[in-house]
Structures are given as structure tokens and as C-alpha cells.
Write a structure and sequence with these properties.
single chain; about 220 residues; mainly alpha; 10 helices; about 60% helix; globular
Amino acid sequence: MTQNDIIQKTSAYIKQEFSDDSSGHDWWHIYRVWKNAIAICEQERADRFTVELAALLHDLDDWKFNENEDETPSRAKAWMESCNVNSEMIEKVCEIIMHISYKGAQVENKMKSLEGLIVQDADRLDAIGAIGIGRAFAYGGYKNRPMYDPERSNNMHASFEEYKNSKSATINHFYEKLLLLKDMMNTGTAKRIAEQRHEVMLSFLSQFMNEWEGKDIK
């Protein structure tokens, strides 16, 4: 198969695998990450095949939906092997998948390759702005979390274990992760996009708090 054949076959496989997701990690999330990653890749001049494969496969072994709660990319690796992707490329893509997720406010980002930094940016861009707001509440509902509890304080997680075990309300999630992502973008392209999406979230939170306290009622 050509590289294009592999990408098309992979996209069809992932679309099928994630078609019924209701957590905000559905096929259309992956589709947006894929397309955004390509756009950033063109600006940053990285290897497109690596970027596309990693973007399409990045959630296949996500710890949030894995009984073992780790990100060993066993399913992604098996898929690439079935497509006869060479071992060097498989290793590179698996390395990206293992380090792509946000793991806590105070946890070091271990992503090294330019391709990985691009896919990570594309994934994080989909977590902020208007779509990010929608996805946050979709995931909160999926996990049976309250929208907001003013008696719960924010927690700037110091370890991945602490972050994984968090039961924070959705509004807390904005302060514990989403509002931090603007300053965690890796590429110049993503940094520019994140500025505007960040402002959308700030505006939303201001309105949410006004409504929560009834301050918008004249």
C-alpha cells in the first residue's frame, strides 16, 4: 500500500471504531485533530505521513477508555503492523501516542519530535474554544460529574496519578486544564489559534458565573 492508501484505510477504521462515542472523543474529534494537524504540519514543515498516522490513531489506546488506565499503544501498533508500516515509523508514531495526553498542570511534557508536538497541539486546540466547551460538558456528563460545585476548589495536579483520579466538576476542569493550554502550545501556528479560542472560554465562564449567581437578572 502507498502512504495515502494507509491513511485512507486508517481513517475508515478509526471512523468505524469511534462512531458511537458520546464522551467528546468521537470520530469527529479525531477528524478535526487530523485536519488541524495537517494544517499545522504544512506551516511547520514536518513529516506529513507521521503526523497523519499519529493524529488518526492518537485516541485508540487512550487511558481514559482503557481498563489498565495506561497508554501503551498496543492497538495502534497492531493496526500499523497490519498495514505493513515499517518498524521505524511504528516506533515513532507509538512514541507520539504515549506522550500526547495532558497529564496534569505540573507534569512535564515529554513529547520530543516536531511531528509529536504538532499532533499534540492539534489535539489541545480541539480542547479549547467553543468546541472545547462543548466537549468538556459532554465528557463531564459521560463521567457523571456535576457541571459546577462552588464548594470544590481547583487542584493543580502534581502527578499523572493525581490527575487520573480526579473527580472534578466540569467548571473546575477549565481552571485545572483548559485555561492552561494556551500557554502550553508548542508551535507558533497553534499559539496564534489558541489566543482567540482562549478568549471564547473566558467569555463563557464569565457568563456562566453571572447566570449561576443570577447577576444577569435585572
